[in-house]
Design goal:
Elements (H helix, E strand, L loop, with lengths): L9 H17 L7 H20 L1
Helix pairs in contact: 1-2
Length: 54
């Protein structure tokens, strides 16, 4: 099987789904965590896909 695009990989699909779930879950976090824990969790989840794309 020839992969033309990284977005076709299962690992990328799982990473993208994880990012979406993290965004949903962190919507319910306290507002005082917006620039702390929420920001860190969202950035780290999004970086998985970004690193795979590189």
């Amino acid at each position: 099987m020839k992969i033309k695009d990284v977005t076709e990989l299962e690992v990328f699909k799982y990473a993208h789904q994880l990012t979406l779930e993290i965004y949903k879950v962190t919507n319910n976090f306290p507002k005082e965590e917006t620039y702390g824990l929420v920001s860190q969790m969202r950035r780290s989840a999004a970086s998985i896909c970004a690193n795979l794309l590189e």
